[in-house]
Structure formats: structure tokens, C-alpha cells
Design goal:
single chain; alpha+beta; four-stranded antiparallel sheet; 8 strands; globular
Length: 170
């Protein structure tokens, strides 16, 4: 059964920068998970559900317009979850609307936590490593136009690969 995720990819040059930083902090997911803002967390989808789900996502793309996203500074979910992230400072309402629309389709997925758009840069690391990530990227700044979102598929080898890019055309 394929595992699918939907996300806004962080474009270059910032994507490479954040991936390298995540590796420096010791996060083993740095090579396998491209920097992104999640719209649908990893979700198992039965093969017959995949075509209607992809059709739904194409409709989502048609209902939403491109928007500007600013990533600035860091945040953390500690002590609830051992995560340090780069904050979405601009584009939160657009992400929230996209996330709701993506999850309104034929694939049901309950969330473990309330939706909070962010870019993970450290997960399941020691407190010292998380502190380093938090401090190191405190001045991080990136601004870009979001014109699409990605549908990722996990092939069982630990890496996420783009299956489809869905343009925002609304």
C-alpha cells in the first residue's frame, strides 16, 4: 500500500540550505525528507483510492491561487514533541485553506496535533542538538511565491520522492 504525503516544497536555494543544516544537526531524515510545509502527513492509501485522490488534488489546485510565503526564524513544539522548525511567518491562512481542502477529499486522515504550518529542521534529536538548530536558524529568512504543491510517495526505502506536482491555478 503506497504511503503518500502532500506538501509545499521549499524552493532553491533555501531547500538545499535547510537540508544541509538538518544533516549538520544530526537528523537522520535530512537526506530522505525534502524541506517542506506539510499539507497532508504521511498517509497509507490503498491502490484503488489513489486515482480519485489525485483527481481531488488536481481540483484543489484549481481552487487555490498562488501566494507568497515567508519563512522566518525558528520555533519548537517542545515539550509536547521533540521538534524544532523554521516558522511560516507569511502564508499561514493560505496553507491552512490548502490543508483543509486537501483533507476534505476521498482520503480521510485524522491529525495527531492541530495543524500548524512549519518546516521541520530537527526531529527526535537530543535537547542539545535541538537547541543548536533553534539558535542556528533564528535569523533564517526566505521569501518565495508558492505556485504549486507536491504529492510525495514513500517507496519503502526511507526516501520521499515527488510523484506529481499540482499547480495552483485558482
Amino acid at each position: 500500500m503506497p504511503v503518500v504525503g502532500v506538501a509545499v516544497a521549499v524552493p532553491e536555494p533555501w531547500g538545499t540550505t535547510l537540508r544541509r543544516k538538518r544533516a549538520v544537526y544530526g537528523d537522520p531524515q535530512a537526506r530522505a525528507v525534502p524541506p517542506h510545509v506539510t499539507l497532508l502527513p504521511p498517509t497509507e492509501i490503498e491502490d484503488p483510492q489513489l486515482p480519485p485522490f489525485l483527481e481531488h488534488l488536481d481540483g484543489v489546485g484549481g481552487r487555490h491561487a498562488p501566494f507568497v510565503m515567508t519563512l522566518r526564524g525558528t520555533g519548537t513544539f517542545r515539550p509536547v514533541s521533540p521538534v524544532v522548525f523554521v516558522q511560516v511567518a507569511r502564508g499561514i491562512p493560505a496553507c491552512e485553506q490548502l490543508e483543509r481542502d486537501v483533507r476534505s477529499g476521498p482520503v480521510a486522515r485524522d491529525l495527531d496535533f492541530p495543524y500548524h504550518p512549519h518546516v521541520t529542521v530537527g526531529h527526535h534529536l537530543s535537547d542539545d542538538q535541538l537547541d543548536i538548530a533553534f539558535d542556528d536558524l533564528a535569523d533564517f529568512l526566505a521569501e518565495f511565491e508558492v505556485t504549486a504543491f507536491e504529492v510525495y510517495v514513500h517507496d519503502g526505502d526511507g526516501a520521499w520522492r515527488t510523484h506529481r506536482r499540482v499547480e495552483l491555478r485558482g
